[in-house]
Amino acid sequence: MTASEAAIKLEIARLQADEEEKKHARLLQLKQMEIDEKERERKHAEEEKERERKHAEEERKYAMEEKERERKHAEAEKERERKHAEAEKERERKHALEMEKTRVEQNLLDNTNNPSPTIHKWERLCPPYDEFRDIAEYFLTFERLCNLHHIPDDHKMTILVAKLTGSALDIFNNMPIDETSDYEKFKDLVKKPGSRSRLKNNEQQNKLSKQ
Q1: 103 DSSP 8-state letter
Q2: Start-to-end CA span in the chain (Å)
Q3: How does 113-133 read in b/e, with b if 16+ C-beta sit within 10 Å?
Q4: What are the phi and psi torsion angles at 116 (to 5°)?
Q5: Each residue's pLDDT tens digit in the chain (211 positions)?
């Protein structure tokens, strides 16, 4: 082999080596590009997943806030209805008391315009209750006069309420409407320890104020 041939053969080998090296570099570059693409896809998937998680979290938070607003609105509406019902009930109670008061006053007026011997004796013998007197003693006098003059049970409160003052009248005004004509119920309420104590205190204060 001549020197020229050997040189050509070496050049060919060098070129082949360079080509192999370039080919290997291209393969490495393609591999890196593939790795980079997969990394970008992974990051993109993670970012998409995070966006979906945040979106779902915001929707859940909004749903909870909406539910809380609805709950508060329902509670407020329920409270308004309760207050309205209480106010309506109170208006009805006051109206019924006014009607009862009017009825009693009318009865008294009718009795004044058309006095009967029984009512006349009642007005003369049973003065209005005042808090200087013991309520139990007043009840006793009242019941004896009712019995003496044949006052029906269903008329007792009609007569008695016109005689009441102070705490005794307050107790009557606080009775349920459907019980205001029940004499025995009124007497039981007045005889309760708390009511008796209040009436006693009023009696003592009234006596001291007169001294």
Answers
A1: H
A2: 156
A3: eeeeeebeebbeebeebebee
A4: -105, 160
A5: 687 777 778 888 888 888 888 888 898 888 899 999 999 999 999 999 999 999 999 999 999 999 999 999 999 999 999 999 989 888 888 887 777 667 655 655 555 455 444 444 555 667 788 777 788 888 888 888 888 888 888 888 888 888 888 888 888 888 888 888 899 999 998 888 766 555 555 454 544 444 4
Structure tokens at 54: 């945040």
Q: Would you tell me how many other CB atoms lie within 10 Å of the CB of residue 106?
A: 10
Cα pseudo-dihedral 104, 108, 113, 118, rounded to 10: 130
* CA atoms of 76 and 211, how far apart (whole Å): 55
Does the predicted TM-score (pTM) go above 0.70? no
Query: Which token pair is 137?
Result: 């003693």
Residues contacting 166, CB < 8 A, separation 6+:
130, 131, 199, 202
Residue type, 28: L
Cα(128)–Cα(161) distance, rounded to whole angstroms? 9
